[in-house]
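WARN  no MSA supplied for this record, continuing single-sequence
INFO  ligand: glycine
INFO  echoing inputs
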Amino acid sequence: MVNVLLIGNGAREHAMAEAVMQSSRQPRLFSYMKTNNPGIALLSEKIFIGSYNDLAAVNAFAKECRIDFAIIGPEDPLNNGVVDSLKSVDIPAVGPTKSLARLETSKSFTRHLVEKYHIPGNPKFRTFSSMEGIEAFLDELDGIVVKPDGLTGGKGVMVQGDHFQTKAEALDYCRQVLKEHPSVTIDERLEGEEFSLQCLCDGKTVVATPPVQDHKRRFVGDKGPNTGGMGSYSCEDHSLPFMDRKDVVEGIEITQKVADAIYRETGEYYKGVMYGGFIITKSGIKLLEYNARFGDPEAMNILPLLKTDFVDVCKAVVEGTLHTLNIEFEKKASVCKYIVPKGYGLPKDHPDAQSTSAKIEVGDVGQARLYYASVDKREDGLYMSTSRAIGVVGIADHLDRAEQIAEKAVGAIRGPVAHRPDIGTGPLIDKRIRNMQKIRG
Ligand code: GLY
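INFO  complex generated
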C-alpha cells in the first residue's frame, strides 16, 4: 500500500491521477485541488479543496492522510515552495524545491546557468534589471523575444511578429515588464519547429519521455491568440515527423547537462520533471525555456503510453534510483484535442465571447480517453467555466488513426464548445515538414 498526494486540478493532473491508479502497488490517492475536478475526485480516496498558497493546509492534509510521497502538477505551488514545506514534515515530492523551480520561474536563472556551464542551446540573449542598454541590444537582433522574469501564466512572453511589430513596441513592453518584475530577459527570435521534451530527473539521471508537439494558437492553421495549449500529438516511433533522431538526443544531452549544472550550482538534487521547450533551427536545436513540471496538454500524450508502473517511477525520482528502472512507453501515437468554451481566447466584445459557464453533454466517445480540466459536475450535468474544459485523447498504432479517434470523440461532446480540428492531421503535419525542410535548406 502506498499513499500518494496529488496537487493540482487540471486535465494534466487527471492524467497523472489515472497513471497513479493504474499502478499495481495498491496506491491510495489523496488529492489537494484549488477547485474540484470531478475526474480526479472519482479516482481519489479523499480530496481537499484549498489554495495553493496555503502551505499549512497542504501539510496538514498530507499528514492526516499519512502520505508517502507527493506529486506536484502545476507551477504555482512549486513557486510557492510547497516542496520545501512538505520536506519540512519529511514528505518527499516529485517536483523541485522553490529554489530549483527557478528553472521555470526565472528565465534569467536558466539562461545564465546554461551559459555559465557552457551548455549548448542558448540563443543570443541578455538580461536587464533597468532600461539601460536595452535599446542598443535590440539593435543587434534580427527578431526580438521579451520574457518577464517570473511566472506569468504562460501569457508573458512576447514575440516580435506575433505580439508586437516594432522596436519601439518592444521597448514599451520592457518598460511595463520592469514595473512588475525584477528583470527582463531578451532573446533573439528563432525560426523553426518546436517540440516539448518532458524528462524525469532524480537529480543525477535524466530519462526522456517521447517528444510531443503542442499547439498554442487558438484557431485552425496556427492563427489567433496564444492559449495554454489547444492540443498536441506524439508519434508511434517516439520521434516527430519533422525531426531527426539527433534532435531528441541533443535535447536529452542538454537536459542532462542542465541537471548536473543545477547540482553543481546549488548543491541540491533536482527531483521532478524537466520539460524542455526546444526549437529546431537551421543551426541545430535551441532551448526556448524549461518548465519544472509536466506540460498541459503534453502529459496527456505520454502518461497513457507509460508501460512502467508510474508509482515505481515516482519513487525512483524521489529516492534517486532512476538509473535502476527501465522506463518504457508503448510504441503508439497519441493525439490530444482540447474542448474549450466557444468564447475561449476571443476578445470580450466578440458575439461568442460569453459562451462560458454553459452546460455540455458528453455522448459516446468511443475509444477516446477524456481528461477533465475546468468542468464542474452538478446534479444536472457537466458545466464549463471560462477555461479549457476537457482534453480528448486518441491513442492508436498510427497517428492518423489516433487523430480520427480523438476527432470522432470531440464530435460527441455537445454544447457551445470549440476545438482545433487540424491538430494531428496530415495537412498540418506536412506544413511542419515543409517548414523544417525550408529552414534546414
Ligand atoms: N504546453 C504548455 C505548457 O504546459 O506550459
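The pocket of glycine is lined by residues 154, 214, 229, 291, 295-296, 298 (CB under 6 Å).
INFO  checksum written, moving to next record
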